Amino acid sequence: MIFFKRNITSAFLLISAFFFTSIKAEAECISSDIFNYTIDFPEMFEIQDCTEDERSILFKHKLLAVQAVIRIWDEASYKNSQEALKDTLKKLSAEGEVSAVKWRNTDCAVSKLSISEKALGEKMSGWGVSIPLPKTKDWFTMLSFAPADKAFDCEQFILSLLDSIMIDRGSKAGPGLITTFAFPQSQEKKITLNIAGKKIQTKIDKDAAEANQFVVDREFAVFSLFVNQDCWKEAWQRFYRMIAKDAMGRVKTAAFDISSALSELSQKNDSENPDAALAQLLLTWVQGFNYERPSATPDRADFTNIPDTLTGKGSDCDSRSMLLMVLYKNLGMDAVMFISVDYSHAMAGICLEGKQGQTFTLDSKDYLFGETTAKDITFGMLPADMQDRSKWIPVELYN
């Protein structure tokens, strides 16, 4: 099987993977039109080999000694994900306990694995997953591993890669398979939000903050690998993107409860564009949060996880901007966030038809800037010393 080959560097293979098959690369996201999956790869991965039918693909990383392989098995080959993953490990002379995981309302499998020297020339360690594909009903399996003596240092990186697998629209706006494995859905707890003079009752998973913090810490470890690389900006965008993807599902119920509670007021404030009125109510709300920088050490992200930001645990500009982005996106609004290393600041961004102000043009759409840390600032206001658009980096969620 081609995906088990080593040291394949043919330029033709790299070109064919991107231009003569349905595999597409946008930034570092790899997607397949045939099997309908998308993977948000950490920066600096390369396709080393790809079969014509796209069922076997080998990836290698340019900076780390990490490899990843995708093998898609025909629907008739196995009865379930666990069986598919167990047999895939066996074919690679690998061992590992295979655990069942419920993800996206389907039965998947996860395994921590070790690969013997006879398979790849040296002992390897890593993780693997198996997922039934909704479109084709085939079994998607993906393994990622590193030399055993380097595997511990690469583990967060490997888990981040596997957690970025997306197989349908819903998986682009919710926790990934690995995070779901680590934090299965638990009991919900009731919370009260005070917005625009209203007490809004809603609920959130009791482990939501801990789970999102798990993603924050993991993704910061991955981003830290690239701070001195040319792709630091893209790695920074992925850091925020992965946290936001996880947070989307965790605040979905809250987003709808907020919208319902503020619907009448939004209509009253702007009958022609109640979405714009609701967006401003939420911007004003987060401007009143307690300011707090959660970390002053270089080994931890200076970022409050989104469930804690939602419940008012203390936050800074980037966590507030992300909270607004995921609330707006859950409500069907076109929203992004902006980050800037030059200004040491972050802002929310939203596309509001008919509204004027300072904007950032992205994909031919104008997003109004939203300041989240200064009070009584409306959308479209931007300080005079932060006007240079080239110093703002947009962070978008997946389409």
Write a structural description:
The chain has 399 residues and is an alpha+beta fold. 32% of the residues lie in helices and 28% in strands. The protein has helices spanning 11-19, 81-91, 117-120, 151-163, 177-182, 208-223, 232-250, 252-269, 274-287, 306-310, 317-330; strands at residues 23-26, 29-32, 37-40, 45-50, 56-61, 67-73, 94-95, 98-103, 106-115, 124-132, 139-147, 165-166, 188-195, 198-205, 335-340, 345-350, 359-362, 365-370, 393-395. Strands 4, 5, 6, 7, 8, 9, 10 and 11 form an 8-stranded antiparallel beta sheet that branches. A hairpin with a 4-residue loop joins β15 (335-340) and β16. It is globular, with a radius of gyration of 22 Å. 45% of the residues are buried.
Question: Which key terms come to mind for this protein?
Answer:
single chain; 399 residues; alpha+beta; eight-stranded antiparallel sheet; five-stranded antiparallel sheet; disordered N terminus
Q: Sketch the major β-sheet.
A: 8 strands, antiparallel
What is the percent of helical residues? 25-40%
Question: Which shape, going by the Cα principal axes?
Answer: globular
The end-to-end span amounts to: 33 Å
SSE blueprint and pairings:
Layout: H1 11-19, E1 23-26, E2 29-32, E3 37-40, E4 45-50, E5 56-61, E6 67-73, H2 81-91, E7 94-95, E8 98-103, E9 106-115, H3 117-120, E10 124-132, E11 139-147, H4 151-163, E12 165-166, H5 177-182, E13 188-195, E14 198-205, H6 208-223, H7 232-250, H8 252-269, H9 274-287, H10 306-310, H11 317-330, E15 335-340, E16 345-350, E17 359-362, E18 365-370, E19 393-395
Antiparallel strand pairs: 1-2, 2-3, 3-12, 4-5, 5-6, 6-11, 7-9, 8-9, 9-10, 10-11, 13-14, 15-16, 15-19, 16-18, 17-18
Helix pairs in contact: 4-6, 6-7, 7-11, 8-9, 8-11
